[in-house]
Fold:
Amino acid sequence: MDHRAELLPHQQITDLKQAAERIRRAGRILVVGCSGGGKSTLSLKIARRFGLSYISLDRDVFWLPGWVTRDRAEQRRIIASRILEERWIMDGTNPSSLDIRMPRTDFVLWVRMPRLLCIWGAISRWAKWIGRNRPEMAPGCPEKIDLEFLRFIWTFEEKFVPRITAGIAEHGPDVPVFQLKSRRQMRELLDLLARPA
Structure:
């Protein structure tokens, strides 16, 4: 099922140049999407380019050493504290916290790559970092991959997209959203952002 039409018409931005201009002006950007799609790489590049604080939900909110999940109330407390900062880019989907994140968000970048590309991204990331920690992951959480994680990626569109769409519409009805649907589109966006304003 295709959920793309469920975003409110005034939220959708379809022009790449317009998206780049929104990013240049935004103080607080939310980057959502499936694992393996390139959210973290994109977020880090934008953070460096525009001097935004980089907040990774995986590293800063969800995980404790040994792949232990932080208590839900503590997760929300950390998010509630971090969103008060003036300039940030937040990398992570977590539909259950959109109620506190969306009201502070200026712009949403939805990295919406095909699921086979996300599977490939997750596997190649694992091969690169096997046994080591990625910089955007919590300390003591070395890179891993298993069938449960691959199943999560495979079913992401049907299980999580309706929740993301509903969360954005309910908690950020006027926040513009741009969906990146290919690696080429992502490269073109980064090229536009690399140019002088």
Remarks:
- The first strand starts at residue 12 and ends at 13.
- Residues 20 and 189 are 6 Å apart (CA to CA).
- The chain has one domain: 10-194.
